[in-house]
Design goal:
Layout lengths: L5 E9 L14 H5 L5 H19 L10 E13 L6 E14 L5 E12 H15 L13 H11 L2 H6 L5 E5 L6 E8 L3 E6 L4 H8 L3 E6 L7 E5 L3 H4 L2 H18 L1 H4 L8 E2 L17 H20 L3 H10 L2
Parallel strand pairs: 4-5
Antiparallel strand pairs: 1-2, 2-3, 3-4, 5-9, 6-7, 6-10, 7-8, 8-9
Helix pairs in contact: 2-8, 3-10, 4-6
């Protein structure tokens, strides 16, 4: 069976006037900022933090620290399974652009950055939880992440992706608080020092099924390493400005959402274990409800189950079995 799924892409500018669309996962970091009374101030503050962080890293030929601005675009990918025009919101990522205020040039940045997926919510918040409900010991279901990984690779290899983006995606996530990271001698001018984890995590294995490798780096001005997921060669396939656009964007979001790690008052040492109970950290001026986020992840997983996994189960299973 060689069924073709089709993808359509919509883009929306992420600025202080942004309102999340109905199909956006509310737990996505940029959508979470854009809600409630402080929405406009949240967005304005976050975007200013991104610009400040970018200019601090791109400091050459930039004496006043104001040469660049970062523009963000939300890229929503809808998937049509049966060719009927009925679509399901499959993934959402961010695309960065760099505005050089000195030359007036608008430079394309990196697509990916943030990664939002209803099917991932289903896998982690429904399937994994149900599988372990009555188990004495935590275990992972057979084929966990297979369908999601194949759908992602199928999208990245699609004509739709190639027509819209020049380079493969890079996704930047926080480090895991149940692993230990060791600093190496390898240093990149923009990504900073590389760290190596003591073991592989479930997230790593899940992203590996999406075709992505991972490396951990702590950029200059950061206090903890980040996980960079990528295809190809992270250090040589992207320019410094492209990499800085991802670091400044995702570093800002992590300082807001994971202040215990990324806004800690002490910098990660040679042997680093992230701690989400670390009290020695600063809070940004941006309002964020973490408890709501974990509750909503379950609701979003159920949404995927009811609107995607169950109705198309047979088609998806046959397609997955034949997808090489």
């Amino acid at each position: 069976m060689n069924k073709e799924f089709t993808f359509s892409i919509k883009s929306l500018r992420l600025d202080e006037n942004y309102h999340p669309s109905n199909s956006t996962r509310i737990t996505t970091n940029f959508a979470n900022l854009a809600r409630g009374e402080s929405r406009q101030a949240n967005l304005r503050n976050a975007l200013q933090m991104i610009d400040n962080s970018f200019n601090a890293l791109a400091h050459w030929d930039n004496p006043a620290g104001d040469r660049y601005s970062v523009e963000l675009e939300i890229v929503s990918v809808d998937m049509d399974i049966e060719g009927s025009g009925e679509t399901f919101p499959s993934i959402e990522v961010l695309k960065t652009y760099v505005l050089d205020n000195k030359t007036g040039e608008r430079i394309e940045g990196i697509v990916g950055n943030n990664f939002s997926s209803y099917v991932r919510d289903y896998d982690f918040s429904v399937l994994l939880l149900d599988h372990n409900k009555d188990q004495p010991q935590f275990s992972i279901p057979d084929n966990f992440g297979d369908l999601h990984g194949k759908l992602f690779k199928y999208f990245v290899n699609s004509e739709t992706y190639k027509n819209n983006f020049k380079k493969p995606p890079v996704i930047c996530l926080s480090v895991s608080d149940n692993k230990t990271y060791h600093k190496t001698e390898n240093q990149h001018p923009v990504l900073g020092f590389e760290y190596l984890p003591n073991e592989s995590s479930l997230t790593e294995q899940y992203f590996k099924k999406m075709g992505l490798q991972v490396r951990y780096f702590m950029p200059p001005n950061s206090v903890a390493p980040f996980a960079f997921y990528f295809f190809g060669d992270l250090l040589n396939d992207y320019s410094n400005l492209e990499l800085i656009s991802t670091i400044s964007t995702m570093g800002t979001f992590q300082r807001i959402y994971r202040p215990e790690i990324y806004n800690a008052n002490a910098v990660a040492g040679a042997c680093y274990k992230p701690n989400l109970k670390n009290l020695d950290h600063s809070i940004t001026q941006i309002v964020y409800d973490r408890e709501e986020r974990s509750r909503l992840a379950k609701e979003q997983g159920k949404f995927a189950e009811e609107n995607f996994i169950k109705p198309y189960q047979t088609i998806l299973e046959q397609w997955s079995a034949s997808y090489a």
